[in-house]
């Protein structure tokens, strides 16, 4: 699939446009990508996949709203702007800056949680880099430089979320692939948008498996537990892609090689090799043929395009613990029936994926021509 010719790609675009002309039922899904963006880890990969799908007429990205998480906000913004510019999509997919800090979770609270017995399982994202947001001088350029022709949108991400949802009632899917600070702020500022959201598809939570930041909590929902608890309790159709499934989807060296060392080298495959090659241990795919890495955020966009990528899904009432200073802060819990207490939302919890089919989708989109025509 990565060898598809340019001619075939153009034909695909024409077909896609033709298929959208018949009315709203055939219109491509409208999405907002709410992301703790990075150059070419899972958020950056999802950005590429979304842009290629938009070019093909299969979805419409209203915007990327950046939030702190993997990186502090401004570093994520730098990487999102360059990501879209690298693809030739800087004028077609706008980038909005959102919230810099979690609603109430800060480093002093995290230290209390560690003292209270939260077991560090290793990944603290932005907080691993520094404890407060970077200054402009501290921002790091992607290896191919800062964006030069792609400007950040002047509107705040929270207001963009509100306006976009109101302008497209019951049409917007949010791919929530970072901490939920932006989304919680938008819902608190304009509660009337809640029933107007078509659905939220999260990468977040560890419903019946251990966490990856603490032993109990998954990173995205741990980073801002107050926001996560607020958002998951809202009456919106919700799907969660938690660690339960991402623990079972591994990028292996043969699949890595199809992208990093495939037939067509592009600005995307070069960044993929540079970012993913060393893995998390500095040896990674380039040095260890048995190296594997879990796949996280990109599962959400496959699910959006075709829910049948999920081969096992349960329906559960999912909650997030918001207990600042306590060892279980940020833990997610799934209940088979509605427990006593606050009203929870029944959501679809993805448990298993069609991994082989997913990786064909993934490799295809990450190896298409760049810049996107
Ligand atoms: Ca993410």
UniProtKB/TrEMBL annotation:
Keywords assigned: Glycosidase, Hydrolase
Keyword Hydrolase carried by entry: yes
Classification via Pfam families: IU_nuc_hydro
Inosine/uridine-preferring nucleoside hydrolase domain sequence ranges: 31-360
A molecular function (GO) term: hydrolase activity
InterPro entries referenced in this protein's UniProt entry, alphabetically: Inosine/uridine_hydrolase_dom, IUNH, Ribo_hydro-like
Domain of life of the organism encoding this protein: Bacteria
PANTHER family assigned to the protein according to its UniProt record, in alphabetical order: INOSINE-URIDINE PREFERRING NUCLEOSIDE HYDROLASE (PTHR12304), URIDINE NUCLEOSIDASE (PTHR12304:SF4)
Name the record gives this protein: Nucleoside hydrolase
Originating organism: Pseudorhodoferax aquiterrae
